[in-house]
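agent> fetching stored inputs for the EPU docking request
agent> found them:
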Amino acid sequence: MQKENKISLKNYNSFGVDVISSNFNIANSEKEIISFIKNNPFSEPIILGGGTNILFKNNIDRNILKIQVKGIELINETEDYVIISVGAGEVWNDLVNWAINNNYGGLENLSLIPGNVGSAPIQNIGAYGVELKDNFENCRTISIENGSLKIFKNSECKFSYRSSVFKEELKNKYIISYVTFKLSKKNHTINSSYEPLKQAIINNKISNPTIKNISELVCKIRSSKLPDPKLIGNCGSFFKNPIINKIDYKKLSEREKNVPFYKISEKKIKIPAAWVIEKCGYKGIRDGDTGTYDKHALIIVNYGKASGNEIFEFSQKIKNTVLRKFNILLEEEVNIIDN
Ligand code: EPU
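agent> prediction call returned; pasting tokens
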């Protein structure tokens, strides 16, 4: 267990916000997580993974527990598939690359998503037509209340669009230490349903895409419109894409031309938050050292020295404008931490 009493979190959050943590702890194993919980009862720690989906508004006095449990272990193998157990502290994209190098299929559409493996189930990360839940078997967790171990199967995680039980009724109740995945060894199911990916396959004249092809194309598409957090601070999509009633979508379409949409059910339609934000005139807008990325309106960026509060205030300006103009209440995808 490592402990720091005064440390800048600048290198621990992809927004690059320079706040001070006065109680920073790193757990390198499941055992260390359990002993931290037992030694710090009632401390309500902030659990930190890769820091790629979190906005610290101020300095943090509360305990922070960074999870750095490493390792990728093959736990079962048949002719058709492998079951692997992965430490929560592994970098997500390292896992994706490991899978592709071993020709294990399932994670390729999720290439280049920032963050760590342990955070992936919490918000059911997704991109290009695939979500974490599609290859997830179970996760091992530790109760924050008493340090006991519990395994959550796929169905028990109640996965939904960018959410799970760990973001809803069990929020801040469990720490994920390991995630188990089932990946294909042959006859991979290639998912190329997402329009820009389909288009890229056609443009590159690929007739039978392999998982490596898909991964490369996804990386290309992502890099063309999303900023690299190592170069410009950001946390990817700041808001979730809003899901609205079909009736409201119809009304919106009468007001605006070509409103993009994804059908969710007979009554519900998801529309891109980026589109509504752009319609409000917020694409590529700079406000001090924060703003929206010029190639994607849903990405709020830190040009260098923006504080967490400045980024937050800017996000709320966007939120209020969207509410006034479209009567749509955007919901933050990024976790906002007050102190
Ligand atoms: N659009 C605009 N203006 C923009 C950008 C996009 O109008 O500046 C419209 C276009 O109509 C475009 C549509 O929005 O077709 C969708 O854009 P994009 O394909 O970039 O996807 P997104 O809905 O903005 C979601 C995820 C991303 C994920 C991509 C690809 C959410 C909140 N975001 O973005 O995830 O990479 O799909 O699957 O669901 C993240 O979670 O941090 C993230 C980046």
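agent> quick read of the result: The chain is about 25% helix and 25% strand.
agent> awaiting further instructions
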